[in-house]
Amino acid sequence: MKKLFNINTFAEFLLIFFTGAVIYYSIEVIWRGYSHIAMALLGGICFLLLYLIGRFFPKIPTLFYCILGGIIITLLELVTGEILNNALGLDIWDYSSVPLNFRGQICLLFSFFWCLISYPAFFLSKLMRMKIFGLQK
């Protein structure tokens, strides 16, 4: 029986996590001019989840992947915002002034952006699976 998790899998997931962390943090710095380390951690988790979806469901339609990606990122931002911003009072971000926001933590506009960003994430994760890890041709 093949192991689901070994040192190669750990290295694969770690590289994916750090790739997502750097990209998410960089996007935020480009967009807002600054970021917070928690956003790098959130970005790593988001990209890892998107990667895993593509890895375990390689035939998923791209449009569905992008919508699912937008939903996942939005939900993780909501949970992260509720903990860091509302419960701990860190005030890392506040979408209160953006229309169609929920508790200042998520908004429809950024959910749409997360769907769009999921598109290149889909191809980057597929490229990494094939070229770096030699999975799924």
Structural write-up:
The protein is globular. It has 137 residues and is mainly α. It has a two-stranded antiparallel ribbon. It has helices spanning 7-32, 37-56, 62-87, 108-132, and strands at 101-102, 106-107. Helix content is 71%, strand content 3%. The chain has one domain (7-132). α1 (7-32) packs across α2, α2 runs antiparallel to α3 and α2 (37-56) packs across α4 (108-132).
How do the strands and helices of this protein lay out in sequence?
Elements: H1 7-32, H2 37-56, H3 62-87, E1 101-102, E2 106-107, H4 108-132
Antiparallel strand pairs: 1-2
Helix pairs in contact: 1-2, 2-3, 2-4, 3-4
Indicate the overall shape. globular
Distance between the termini: 23 Å
Structural class designation: mainly alpha
Strand portion:
under 5%
Q: What's the structural domain tally?
A: 1
Q: Biggest sheet, open or closed, and with what strands and sense?
A: 2 strands, antiparallel
Walk across the major sheet and give the strand order: 1-2
Give the rounded overall mean pLDDT: 94
Low-confidence stretches: none
Please count the helical segments.
4
What's the total number of strands?
Answer: 2
Helix content: over 70%
Sketch the topology as an H/E string, one letter per element. HHHEEH
Rg result: 16 Å
